């Protein structure tokens, strides 16, 4: 061997060394920011995104037509038939005609059966029309958007003094904090605790830190840029539940009402500002 | 081929592949330069950065689908021909261009653009006297959380 | 209700000579060219191509855009108003879609 071997190993080492340095340099470009700074910059991004006009508002215009088309001007959301100003702010509430506590979407579903002649299955299909799609201009989402926007400026005011509402609140709270399913997940896995947590660049809100649950839900339906369409609360539950590997979620179910009661009551006092916008 | 030669050649190949990421950036910008030459008819190297044009864009974008950008300029609008927006590393670097007239009152544009990944965004102002000014901002496109 | 629906937002009133911001959002998928994952065939892009801003039927500004602009894009452009009138946006896409939307403004 001798000289040739020494030369060979020298060339080898220097080439590999250079390659290693090059790789490290390319990687270093991504490692300049601290986690706190990254969170702050992502919040800045979300603030910039919220400027201008939210595309979700176009669904509200469509919803105004659909509201009339499906006779929802006969529907009592708690403030009298057809009255939608401030309706979202006082939901969920107990409805004597249905003998149940209902949130906005469940009430819409119930009224579609009463006044638009839909069967429960048709209502479910109607509610799920845009699930899994992109740029979907669905009438159900439009109706939810239209009614929700009519509560802009109102503060969430769920009546926990009503024993039926209080009962649903307690059930919702229990479900939120009970680990279930094959992965032992629950809402609290991501959305609870005092310590700030995040998934990649997204900071997670926590029901245990004051004001955060309210801020998170007071902007639903929320326009999602990754799907170019709005997402309603029930679709949000369905997605979380799918990701937690819990049994399949059905819109307008008791589970949905329990979660809504817990979340909206926790958010009491938060000003409604629909639609929100995010990834 | 004897064993030593084979080992040397494979070592060189491996080292070459490891070095490749460091060399790549030099090739990526030429697509931008071609696009600028094609659309504006001028070389990127002839365009200077200037404080007379301001480009506001987020430093981090949680999603590349909808990146908000705002362009403003103190240059009087009657001296301005057209504003061009480019994203260096997009499959098609040209995003949009806007023709201004005195009735606009000033140079201003706010919109939302798509970015395939971390890249520079460039706002190039083409002036009536044939000169150009430019503002550049790097936007880091990250992955958002699940949900 | 479909592609091409727009919201145009301007102040109701402005002073003579004031530069206002014309804000708009237009529903459009703005799909870039891509390959269908199942057939492997090229799917052509579907995007808005041009937007013209007019004031009392005078062309003020023209914007050319491609699929690099986001879906359901928000756009804001400046306009110097000297008299009351009608602000109009006329826009089209690469599949023959042609639309218009107006908004009134009073100049005091």
SSE arrangement:
The complex is a heterotrimer of chains A (279), B (147) and C (108).
Chain A: H1 3-28, H2 35-49, H3 56-69, E1 93-95, E2 100-102, H4 104-115, H5 120-127, H6 139-149, H7 163-177, H8 187-191, E3 197-199, E4 202-204, H9 212-217, E5 222-224, E6 229-231, H10 233-243, H11 254-266, E7 276-278
Parallel strand pairs in A: 5-7
Antiparallel strand pairs in A: 1-2, 3-4, 5-6
Chain B: H1 3-23, H2 25-40, E1 48-49, E2 53-56, E3 60-61, E4 67-73, E5 80-87, E6 94-99, E7 107-113, E8 119-127, E9 132-141
Parallel strand pairs in B: 1-9, 3-9
Antiparallel strand pairs in B: 2-4, 4-7, 5-6, 5-8, 8-9
Chain C: E1 6-9, E2 13-14, E3 18-26, E4 34-35, E5 42-43, E6 48-55, E7 58-65, E8 74-81, E9 85-93, E10 98-107
Parallel strand pairs in C: 2-10
Antiparallel strand pairs in C: 1-3, 3-8, 4-5, 6-7, 6-9, 9-10
β-strand amount of chain C = over 45%
Average pLDDT score of chain A: 92
Radius of gyration of chain C: 16 Å
Strand order of the largest sheet of chain C: 2-10-9-6-7
Tally of DSSP β-strands of chain A: 7
β-strand number of chain C:
10
CATH topology label of chain A: Cytochrome Bc1 Complex, Chain D, domain 2
Number of domains of chain C: 1
SSE string of chain A, helix = H, strand = E? Answer: HHHEEHHHHHEEHEEHHE
- Termini separation of chain C comes to 36 Å
**Inertia-based shape of chain C:** elongated
Query: What is the alpha-carbon Rg of chain A in Å?
Result: 24 Å
CATH superfamily of chain A: Cytochrome c-like domain
Assembly type of the chains comes to heterotrimer
Q: In the CATH classification, which architecture of chain A applies? A: Orthogonal Bundle
Concise account of the structure shown:
The complex is a heterotrimer of chains A (279), B (147) and C (108). Chain A has 279 residues and is mainly alpha-helical.
